[in-house]
Write a structure and sequence with these properties.
The protein is α/β, with parallel strands linked by helices. Helix content is about 45%, strand content about 15%. A seven-stranded parallel beta sheet has the order 3-2-1-4-5-6-7, sandwiched between helices. Helix 1 crosses helix 8, helix 3 (about 65-75) runs parallel beside helix 4 (about 100-130) and helix 4 runs parallel beside helix 6 (about 150-170). It is globular, with a radius of gyration of 17 Å. The chain starts with a strand and ends in a 6-residue tail after the last strand. The relative contact order is 0.14.
Length: about 240
């Protein structure tokens, strides 16, 4: 059974990815600071699935703890076949008035933490001669959005990291890709008014919002045989918002 680490796996897109992978026969190891009730419910529901849904706690903002965490996961589960860097925060704020501590927190969790985590996971993948890395970026990386300049910068960093790392590790059989979701129908967009949601959907070619499972399906594809010759690419999933 192939092991796949999914960060930010306690809710939203991350948990949807972990659920789909477990149902497809992978051992999905959801990672977050603490186990949510949604994770406990999902584990129970998937107890008879082809794969397994596991949970392991790790505060990824504490980068010094990441090397030991990766070693613990590898010792317990064996080779790590896939890594989905989904954890992140989306703090809004105008740059001119945003507190420095908020800027640092965004950059730390959205840029530094996934890079450090990938460093220690990819070492094992290189030794194994195979692996799949998927970074969750955002359409904001390329479109921009008022009040999300720092967030947009972190997601653009994810794309740059993806393209160059794909060059570094491709020769040893590892693929590295990014997914750029648009406005996804999750709890993070529930704060939008119905009018705002309709306006966003109205700007999309398909006249709707994409859903978490759309992202999960792309992750499943990239991890499977269909993704074996895809690397250094960015896949936009936004129902045609940027078309």
């Amino acid at each position: 059974m192939r092991n796949v680490l999914v960060t930010g796996g306690s809710r939203g897109i991350g948990l949807t990815i972990a659920r789909r992978l477990a149902a497809a026969g992978y051992q999905a190891i959801a990672v977050a600071r603490r186990e949510s009730e949604e994770v406990r419910v999902a584990k129970a529901e998937l107890s008879k699935a082809e794969g397994r849904l596991q949970f392991r706690a790790c505060d990824l903002s504490a980068v010094d703890a990441i090397p030991a965490f990766v070693k613990t996961v590898r010792d317990e589960f064996g080779a790590i076949y896939g890594l989905v860097n989904n954890a992140g925060i989306g703090t809004e704020g105008l740059l001119a008035t945003m507190h420095n501590s908020q800027i640092e927190a965004l950059v730390q969790l959205n840029v530094l933490s996934p890079i450090i985590l990938t460093k220690y996971v990819v070492r094992h993948m290189m030794a194994d001669g195979k692996g799949r890395i998927i970074n969750v970026s955002s359409i904001i990386a390329s479109t921009g959005y008022n009040g999300l300049s720092v967030y947009g910068a972190t997601k653009a960093a994810s794309v740059g990291f993806t393209r160059s790392l794909a060059r570094e590790v491709g020769k040893v059989g590892i693929t590295v890709n990014a997914i750029a979701p648009g406005f996804i129908d999750t709890e993070l967009t529930q704060d939008l008014s119905e009018q705002q949601r309709e306006r966003i959907a109205g700007r999309s070619a398909l006249r709707r919002l994409a859903e978490p499972d759309d992202v999960a399906r792309m992750v499943e594809y990239l991890l499977g045989d269909g993704g074996r010759n895809i690397t250094g690419s960015v896949f936009t999933i936004d129902a045609g918002n940027t078309a």
